[in-house]
Amino acid sequence: MQHERSTETAPTLWRHRDFLCLWSAQITSLLGSEFSRVALPLIAVTVLGASPLAMGLLAAIATAPNLLFSLPAGAWVDRQRRRPLLITGDLIRAVVLLAVPISLWTGHASITLLGVVGFIVGTCSVLFDVSYQAYLPSLLDKSQLLEGNSKLELARSVTQMGGPGLAGLVVQLVSAPAAVLIDAISFLLSGIFIGTMKHREPTRDAGAQKRPLKQDILEGLSFVRRHECLFPLAVYTGISNFLYGGIMALYMLYMTRDLQLTPMGVGLVFGSIGVGTLFAAMLIRPTRERLGLGGAVVASALGTGIAGLLVVFARPGFALPLMMSSEALGSLAVVVGIIASSTLRQSVTPPEMQGRVAATMRLILVGTAPLGGVAAGLLGEALGVRQAITILAVANVFPFLWLLRAPVLAAGRAPAVR
């Protein structure tokens, strides 16, 4: 049955029942994830006595699925109906996370268990994220994609701002296992929200199931490589995230040692992210109307580079205003860019390729930042933290040049599937 998506009856997505279910699922699970993000490392350190090496391995294990499974997940998602995958990803994460508080309460917790839980949750998160990015274009009209991505990204930003503080309060007042239990419940609620959606996707092509998965993966990579808009966007994403990952690897050292910021000052710097996020939610639509989606992506890329330059000019005694301005401007530009680029990608990608294209972009996004962190560490050791930050920040001004191509700049004024 074809889903009814009339813009006359639903002028805003706040009246779109199925989108509200998806939005509620996202904000619930994202908020819950912030609880585990705080609680799991605390459990490893304070309860299980994890060493620095063990903490590093746990972090690597939790993020490894992004590199291992993004491309296979994209190909698999394009063979399936996406909504059942969303529900499955949520329910598995809920069950697996329950193992942590149960093992602690029964005295069977271990570092190995945390690693296994982190790996399974990370794998399901890859499946969920790729599925929901591929699902949204089938749920909404093209004219609604910008609003949908904007609301979903705002939900992510709000949970990232308020979630850690709320999670820390729960850990302090109750316990870390209770915080993980809250995360498990949040995934269960997310699955219930998605399960109540009425929209049904069309049946997938049965012939696609018979092709080798590798063939589908290569087809997705080839599609991005040949596309006049997606390839420049992929190149920009890879270069920019490599440089950004390097800056963030040295960021805390730079603020505390070179700029001599106090813990309160560091908190104020990161708190400025919320200011930029709120402005981004208000500016994305007028930016798109004036510049188009492609123009908004280019403006975002340039704004991100300029924001990074403010960090270079910070000096002890006058660091806080510049660092806060950098974070506010940078978060504004980044959020506008995420919303515009996601909408652009979904608009120019055929329905049967949505999962693979989303997975390809995701792999570039998560795969280049750790490499940048390693490079920045080596650069910092050789030249010093300030010099390394300066080189990376100046270099990050220029990746937007990859986007200065006519197809990208013109994209989004009248989006069409290619």
Task: Please characterize this protein's 3D structure.
By secondary structure, the protein is mostly helical. Helices cover 79% and strands 0% of the residues. The protein has 13 helices and no strands. It has helices spanning 17-47, 52-77, 82-106, 111-139, 142-173, 176-195, 213-226, 230-258, 263-312, 320-348, 354-383, 385-395, 406-410. The longest helix has 50 residues, at 263-312. The radius of gyration is 21 Å and the shape is globular. It starts with 16 loop residues before the first helix and ends in an 8-residue tail after the last helix. 48% of the residues are buried. The model is unreliable at 1-10 and 414-418 (pLDDT under 50).
Number of strands: 0
- Count of helix runs: 13
Query: Uncertain spans, ≥5 residues at pLDDT below 50?
Result: 1-10, 414-418
- Radius of gyration, rounded? 21 Å
Oligomer: single chain
- Let me know the average pLDDT: 86
Structure class: mainly alpha
**What's the helix-strand series?**
HHHHHHHHHHHHH
Task: Report the portion of residues in β strands.
Answer: under 5%
Sheet having the most strands: none
Q: What overall form do the CA principal axes indicate? A: globular
How far the N terminus sits from the C terminus, by CA atoms, comes to 26 Å
Helical fraction equals: over 70%
